[in-house]
Amino acid sequence: MKKNLKIALLSDLHAFMPNEKRKDISYLPVSPTASDPDPFRDLDALLGKHAPKLTVDLLICPGDICDQADYKGFQFAWTKLNALKTNLGASELIATCGNHDLDSRHKYDPDDDPDPKGALQQVTPQFPFTEDADCNHYWARNFAVRFPGDDVRVIVLNTSAFHGGAEGELHHGRVSLRTIRAIQKALEDDAKKYKINLLVCHHHLRPLEAWGTSTDKQYVSKGSELLRMLSDTTGTPWVVLHGHRHSSNIEHAQTPAYVMIGASSFSKPEFDKANQFHVIDLTIDPSDRH
After folding, report:
1. Is the bond leading into 37 cis (omega within 30 degrees of zero)?
2. Does 131 or 20 have the greater pLDDT score?
3. What is the pTM of this model?
4. Confidence of residue 290 (pLDDT cuts 50, 70, 90)
5. Which of 67, 100, 243, 272 is most buried (most C-beta within 10 Å)?
6. pLDDT value at residue 269
7. What's the CA gap between 90 and 85, in Å, rounded?
8. Cα 275 to chain center, whole Å?
């Protein structure tokens, strides 16, 4: 029997509170006026033109919801994402934090009280999940496992978990061997049960090829080890959904078996690109050996 899943994917919103020094950070200022760019308003209008209305199973955002730890921007965009979930008829909004969402450079610490993830733990609705248990697991263990459908399993990974510690961590993502082993243990009991397996993370797990004129170094440290463990443990291909680079990307391999899809920026003007919103249809057909 074929299994189908429709996903709406948007990433790297970079929402911000405008002031005299920060006027053109992105196309997503807090409380946009009628004359300002408003990607969410435009997206709602676009969805309204579809007949029948576009609906999806999941809405996924792989991070950088705000810009430079601008928490008014984060609250604004997180509220918009939850409204979009309802508008799309999605059963769940699945998000992870990006490097910009964490106050990793301690810019906004009141009274010398550094807490890179503290503000994210106080937004409404709760981030990244509505349930306390999964939120606590995500922040304490750097990942959580979600089951948004009978045959769908999603690992939500925090590849920015080490930001705010050693200085060099700011320049790339990371998944530790301890986290890889913990994810493997979480998968083992029902390793082969789910036909559709998704990994949602901010940074890409492998270096991107043809990245401008420089070598890409911002990928996840030990990301390849994670990919191999996922494929070997479950015996099924994994679909990896990420953001970070503001450029759409598709990569696939058979050993380990995965498809990695990078979302282009939803809101970043200096790259001279249109805002992009992706709809992905996944079909798993067990009768097709290819």
Report:
1. no
2. 131
3. 0.93
4. very low
5. 243
6. 67
7. 5
8. 16
Instruction: Determine contact, residues 223/206, Cβ cutoff 8 Å.
Output: yes
Q: Which residues of 215-244 are buried (b: 16+ CB within 10 A; e: fewer)?
A: eeebbbbbbeebbebbbebbebbbbbbbbb
Question: How many residues does this entry show for the chain?
Answer: 290
Element (H, E) at 144: strand 143-149
How many CB atoms are closer than 10 A to CB 186? Answer: 18
* Residue 276 structure tokens: 């992009």
Token pair of 290 as six digits? 């290819």
Tell me, what amino acid is at 236? T
The alpha-helical segments, DSSP class H, found in 20-171 are 39-49, 71-88, 132-141
Whether cis (ω within 30° of 0) applies to the bond prior to 128 is yes
Instruction: Please report the pLDDT score of residue 138 as a whole number.
Output: 98
> Which structure tokens are listed for 192?
């082969």
Distance from C-alpha of 29 to C-alpha of 17, rounded to nearest angstrom: 6
Task: Give the integer Cα–Cα distance in Å for 197 and 237.
Answer: 7
Q: Which position has the higher pLDDT, 171 or 179?
A: 179
**Nearest to residue 265, comparing CAs of 100, 48, 26, 22?**
26
Mean pLDDT computed over 144-153: 93
Strands 152-157 and 196-200: parallel
Question: Are 129 and 174 a contacting pair, CB within 8 Å?
Answer: no
The C-alpha atoms of residue 124 and residue 109 are separated, in whole angstroms, by: 20
- Output 168 or 206, whichever has higher pLDDT: 206
Whether the predicted pLDDT of 159 surpasses 80: yes
CA distance 190 to 233: 10
Helices (H), the chain: 39-49, 71-88, 132-141, 177-188, 223-234
Q: Which two tokens stand for residue 181?
A: 């082993």
Pairing relationship of beta strands 257-262 and 173-174 according to DSSP bridges? unpaired
Average pLDDT of the chain to the nearest whole number: 88
Are 199 and 155 in contact by the 8 Å Cβ rule? The answer is yes
